[in-house]
Each structure stands twice: as structure tokens, then as C-alpha cells.
Design brief:
Largest sheet: 2 strands, antiparallel
Order of helices and strands: HEHHHHEHHHH
Number of strands: 2
Distance between the termini: 91 Å
Radius of gyration: 20 Å
Number of helices: 9
Shape: elongated
Helix content: 55-70%
Strand order of the largest sheet: 1-2
């Protein structure tokens, strides 16, 4: 009797509660994953903890997109980037260190969401997200698995740490690549990850150049005043 080995190899992006099905049969979008979690739940209300476990490291992407949204607004508010940039850096640090799920306060983990509400939100969001989904979809999978996930965590942690510095519009320049990297993680799109890394390097150079120029101008002005 010959036993054929399964071509399936689990990755560290998958949740431990997800069924071991071939890659072609697994959910291709985050909305499919949310629907699967909702349908598989025996309860009418699904806890945040269940969603966190079901999404696996995709949950990091959703959380980082949420924390990054205020920084995408071009408002000259220095505290805005600090308030949201620091938690964003801490979440990305957890991803860099290899945690399977992001840490969420216990009182939030116990909160529940009705199954029908989740399914309704998925349907409405996918209807509006469908056009954009033509541009982002699973490809170059190595960049969103194992070492690729840690690279994404390192990049976002670095960008978010730089974001807290009071550089005019520096948070917006860094928030764009963070959003692209997070979306790449959510949809397992390696091409989006590459684009986010390239824009992230450009954003870092922009902030370093503008920050050093501002610092130099302040030093020159101080010398003129007190020299």
C-alpha cells in the first residue's frame, strides 16, 4: 500500500483553529476568513479573542491599519502622530518578535460581536472593496510568510518610531508605506510589501533630510541670537 504525502505545508500565518485544507481551497481574502470564523462559531456572538485567533497574523495587519488611519489625515497636529504612532510601533514590534497574535487588553478580548453583524459588514465592505481588490491579491507568498512577516514588522516598527518625531507632514509620508505594508500582510500580497518597503525607505530619507534641515536652521538661528 502506497501512501501519498500531502502537498500541504502549514505556514506561520495560519491560525491554529483553521482547518488543514489545501492552499487553493483556503480563503483568498480577509472577508472570506471572517465569514468562515462566523459560520464556524456555535455561538450567536463571537468574541474578539475568537477573531484574533482565527485571523492569525492577518490580525496584525487589520490592527495596524486601524491605528494608522489618523496619520493618513494631513493635519499639522504633533500629538496625533505620537498618540497613534507609539502604539503602532509596539504592535509592529510584537510582529517582529514572532508573536502569533497581537496582544489585546483582556477586557476587549471578552467583548462580543453578533454573527449577523459581521456577515453584513463583510458583504458591504467587499461590495465597495471589490474594485480595489483587482489590484491587491495573494502573490509572491514568500514575502508574507515566516521571515517576510518579520521584515514587515521591522519596517513598520521603524517607520512608526520615526513618525513620533515632530517633523511637519512627516507622519503622512510615513503613514502611506505603513498602510501599504499592512494591506500586503492582510491580503498576502508580496508585491504590495515590496512597494511599501520602497516607499518606506523614501519616507525615511525625506524625514531625515527635512529633520536635519530644521535642526540646522534652529542651530543657525540660535547662533545669530546668542552669538
Amino acid at each position: 500500500m502506497v501512501v501519498l504525502a500531502s502537498p500541504y505545508h502549514p505556514t506561520d500565518l495560519e491560525s491554529p483553529i483553521m482547518p488543514l485544507t489545501p492552499y487553493s481551497d483556503r480563503p483568498q481574502t480577509v472577508f472570506d476568513t471572517l465569514r468562515m470564523i462566523a459560520h464556524d462559531s456555535p455561538d450567536e456572538r463571537i468574541s474578539v479573542e475568537a477573531f484574533s485567533k482565527g485571523l492569525g497574523r492577518r490580525g496584525y495587519g487589520i490592527l495596524m491599519v486601524t491605528l494608522n488611519l489618523p496619520n493618513l489625515i494631513p493635519l499639522p497636529l504633533p500629538l496625533l502622530s505620537f498618540i497613534f504612532g507609539l502604539p503602532l510601533a509596539l504592535v509592529a514590534l510584537q510582529l517582529l518578535l514572532g508573536r502569533e497574535n497581537p496582544w489585546i487588553p483582556p477586557f476587549l478580548l471578552r467583548r462580543g460581536i453578533r454573527k449577523q453583524e459581521i456577515l453584513y459588514v463583510c458583504d458591504q465592505a467587499e461590495a465597495r472593496y471589490g474594485r480595489f481588490h483587482r489590484w491587491i491579491h495573494p502573490r509572491l507568498p514568500a514575502l508574507t510568510r515566516r521571515w517576510g512577516v518579520r521584515v514587515i514588522g521591522f519596517a513598520i516598527c521603524l517607520l512608526a518610531s520615526m513618525m513620533v518625531l515632530p517633523i511637519p507632514f512627516g507622519n503622512l509620508v510615513l503613514a502611506i508605506p505603513i498602510a501599504i505594508l499592512s494591506l500586503g500582510l492582510i491580503e498576502r500580497d508580496g508585491l504590495f510589501v515590496i512597494l511599501g518597503l520602497v516607499l518606506g525607505v523614501a519616507g525615511l530619507f525625506f524625514n531625515l533630510l527635512l529633520g536635519s534641515s530644521i535642526l540646522y536652521g534652529m542651530l543657525v538661528a540660535t547662533q545669530h541670537l546668542f552669538g
